[in-house]
Design a protein that fits this description.
0% strand, mainly alpha
Length: 220
């Protein structure tokens, strides 16, 4: 069983709502490359593999399709939502739903065949065969999607890593410019001064007398 995936299928794009949505340009750029790769996929006879999923016009028109596939979508509709995808996982969920819908339709037709109700519903064996071929194309595109998503995620991680480094450099330069200059801020130390009293060269008694009077005055 596949894990539950988040998608934007319930949100119909409109000029009012799309203008208020948050844009994720890096996710959009990577998703657009994946979408281009899916559209560029070709069969050996140069048939575009994504043709059955290209737009609403290429989906089955029968009323039974709406009953069997409640959340129909296509690549053109997904392209209109590219600015709204917050992650590649959200984008991939909608693309995979295109392929899952093809499988649902095939299962529904097979069930009608088993109950003998195919013609009663206005369907033919051509519809059954085309549904089977569409599922085969979906499996090819699923493999392409998986490989392209690996490359896209690596590219997205690289751009985010570059942004983180640039942000760190900016923060570092701001911190360096705002840090106080320790050399300028540090208070200047006063030079130690020493007073040397030189004894007079004029005779021992005079010198002793001066020294005595100096010491006595200091005691007082």
């Amino acid at each position: 069983q596949k894990k539950a995936r988040r998608s934007l299928l319930s949100e119909e794009p409109s000029s009012a709502s799309s203008s208020s949505r948050i844009s994720y340009p890096k996710v959009e750029a990577c998703a657009r490359k994946v979408l281009s790769a899916l559209r560029a996929h070709r069969m050996t006879n140069d048939y575009e593999t994504a043709t059955p999923f290209a737009s609403k016009a290429t989906l089955p028109k029968h009323a039974e399709y709406a009953a069997a596939v409640p959340e129909a979508t296509d690549l053109a509709t997904i392209e209109k939502r590219l600015k709204s995808y917050a992650s590649l996982d959200d984008f991939a969920a909608d693309v995979e739903r295109c392929f899952d819908n093809a499988k649902l339709w095939k299962q529904h037709l097979n069930a009608l065949v088993a109950r003998g109700e195919l013609k009663k519903k206005g369907l033919t064996d051509l519809d059954v065969n085309y549904a089977a071929e569409t599922v085969s194309l979906a499996k090819m595109l699923e493999a392409t999607l998986e490989m392209e998503l690996i490359t896209a995620r690596e590219a997205l991680d690289d751009t985010r890593g570059g942004d983180d480094k640039a942000s760190a450099l900016r923060e570092g330069s701001r911190g360096a410019s705002s840090a106080p200059d320790k050399r300028a801020a540090a208070p200047k130390k006063k030079k130690a001064t020493t007073t040397t009293t030189l004894a007079s060269n004029g005779g021992g008694k005079g010198g002793k007398g001066k020294g005595a009077s100096s010491s006595s005055s200091s005691r007082a």
